[in-house]
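User: I'm curious whether this sequence folds into something compact or stays loose and floppy. Could you predict its structure so I can see for myself?
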Amino acid sequence: MTHMHIGVPREVVPGETRVALTPNEVRSLADEGHQIVIEQGAGYRAGHPDSDYLSAGALSGTRADAFSADMVLQVHLAGTGSHTSDPAFAQDLGLTRPAAVLVGLANPLSHPEPVRRLAEHGVTAFSLDLLPRITRAQAMDVLSSQSAVAGYRAALVAAEQVDKMLPMMTTAAGSITPARVLVLGAGVAGLQSIATVRRLGAVVRAYDVRAAAREQVESVGGIFVDLPLDTSSAEGNGGYAQAQQEEFYARQREVLAAEVAAADIVIATAQVPGKPAPVLITEEMVRAMRRGSVIVDAAAAQGGNCALSVPDETIELSGVSITAPTNLPAGVAAHASRLYARNLANFTRHLLGEDGPRLTADDPIIQETLLTTDGQVVHPRLRTLLDLDAPDASAANNLHAVTAERN
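Assistant: Here's the prediction. I'll summarize afterward.
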């Protein structure tokens, strides 16, 4: 494996507390021969002072030192996502060496335009939120690890805000029935929410548009909600939910109304990759809920499952609290960073070959996550979103050509 100079800058997205590498992963990569420079204070909010990194074999440096490395590992890729109006991102990209390798999260299907800037700067950029859902990629799957954290946190936020205790209790003053929780969406986040509120003693019902989710919901103690809807086309590639027509969502909201009204807590986690989150909860449905009930919209970063959600705010309507956090993992930065760093280190090992990064076109892990290289946007879905001309035969083989040249 090629030995790389790896930089880890401090995250500057508002509210972000995670760090791309923890001392454990730094030690592991340093033992493999890589030189790692950590921006001063990068891990502080995740519970890791600079001294921990120095003990693990890293160097401590400035932000410019971290971004001048051959390979830069981040949570949020510089200059991408929904925060590109922040001047700090433009400055970070300016600090980055052309031809450097950047690895992190860019949310490019929802925010494709910033990817042009990465290409123009000449970096080779990978976005791990595009990682394919295949067995070989599980150890690198940042979406699954961070979604599990988000689902756990959503359950705790809801439990703290609702005006009831979650478990059934028998006291000298009488018995208390368990709280009723409805979870919308049974992906990784939804399943973790179900498991967490079940452990807290609530009765949990859950709905997912994918019929295959029933077994998973029941395996973690939830009751699957059957709706009289045709969901035969609801599951897309990789087991993710597939976007539906608005007529389907309208009927879905109609039949979900009674379930929402009966719940003390609704945790909404339904998302479709690369698309706005479907609106499952209308204002009318909120008004029908009991005063003191709570909605936690964990899909707020993609627009939200509740029509009333305001990102990163809590509002109240008719006595119902609606909270829409966009970065739930940041609330438990130590463990979220530990999982993310392990995923990132595993991807780094997979990427690096004997002669440097392996830009191998026939490797789905590399192919699906590679955004830009040699001044071009090379990801097919992003080229379509950005209205770039279809590459000609030689350009179509660009990735193969780059690989051959570098190897």
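Summary: Residues 147-326 form a domain with the Rossmann fold fold (CATH 3.40.50.720). The chain has two domains: 5-130+332-406, 147-326.
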